[in-house]
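Q: Now give one record:
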Amino acid sequence: MDLPEEVIKKDFPGRGNGLVAAKNFPAYSEIFRKMPEVWVPDSDYRSRICANCLLFAAATGDSIQAGTVAKVFSCGKCRSTYYCSQECQLQDWKAYHKRECKILATLAPQVPPSTVILLMRILLIPGNKRQRFYSAMETLRSHIDDRRNTEDFETSVVMSKGAKEYSGTELTLETVVEMLCKIMTNSFSIPLPTYDIVGIMFDTSISLINHSCDPNAVIVFEKNVLMVRAVRPIRKGEEIYITYTDNTMPMPRRKKALRTQYFFDCQCTACCPASLRPDPRNDFLCPTCGTAFQPYSTNSHTGVQLYTDIQECSSCGYEFPDSPNVVYNIEHKIANTGLAEVFDIENDRMAREVLLKLKELYKLKTIPIYRSPFIEPMASLIPYCIKHADWNMAIGLLGIEYFMQDEVRSQLPEYAPVRLAHMMRFVVVLLYVILDGECSKTLPQYSIDFRECLWGLVVELERLIPTVYGENSAFEKHVREKFKHVMLKQMGPVLARMHMNSTLEKLGWYKEMDKIKTYAMDFLDRV
């Protein structure tokens, strides 16, 4: 394990190993960058991206992605691994593919799941390098005993058998199963700036970074280069934390997700009873005046009972009729909707059902729209609207996401990469709206100038991207070249000069965005 010089490995009694900063890091600065030790494309994207550098092929319809190439071509032997150039093909061949190509060719046209290919790549590491890698893996936790009691463990055994058979390793099946469990515990998804998950990676040094629901760092990717960046000032000797789960969820759901996937009870500063503070992720509302209250107990909450109750609103005096079961009943209604489990909208019927359930929860006036369970299904509805060119609904949902969800969640600095992804999606939808024209015709009462909204979002994106991805990133160049330059060209020399030399306030951007906000606030009442 070769640690970057910017960090130091440290043992924390009762918690295991972690990484601490070797020097001071300002907020939004890069702590270190490196290429992961092993990575593979996600199965769903395998024929659409370069297996080496993770660039998208524009020909597949993903030209909005940062850093696209004209096309990718398949390996001539296995026909299941794709590259953007001969240079990338040669790099991947030397690193991994020459040892797996014959195996994949034998299995064609079937391709093993990405996790199996990742495990197989590790099993096929040659010579002394393999022994060093295995030694580094020995220090990582597998939680294999916990996983034996899960429903998915038998699937893990089957996947391990496949990887063992394909690779020809002499390791025992039990050892290979434990290695897979370590991968499942310590691997990371590879997100694009748009937050599409395009791959999975495993790195023995990155695996040492511990979790916090109040992290001081984030992991982002520039093609196949991983960057760990500070989201707030980090002092020399301070431990570096990232988040392992969806950090927008309320505390009980975060803790449950971490116990289920990583088998530990989070006691970070956002979850530890001694340090609980107001947190919008945990808000409930008074249905009369809208005052937020935080019901979670300051007593130990490692057990089932995670909250205390409320009897009356401290602001308006409203008496909750179902006290002392107010919070329980709200949580029960949320659970009954099933909205927290919605990740993909598959058809019109499902879209209508999700919208109906969202409206029912919204009418309760006890759950703020900026927290779960509104976030997940709304985020899933937006791609569905784009696919079906329903720009009215898309603008409404994007407005809610931008103004009522992201602005609250932007209090969490680690959320910045996701906010940028949402802004990028807003840009793409506004561009479609301008080209299509139908949405602007159906909203005459709002008189929204979508061109000024689009221009302002692009300018804001260009300003904010360096804080997350650093200067001159592929994402920043993509926004500048694919959107800003194209817009300036369409404006003509006079308008282009005016926009380049003026502020967003003078151009009326904030005024036009307020119109979208008004439309979004009316949206759920109209649905």
User: Anything to note?
Assistant: Residues 86-107 form the longest helix (22 residues).
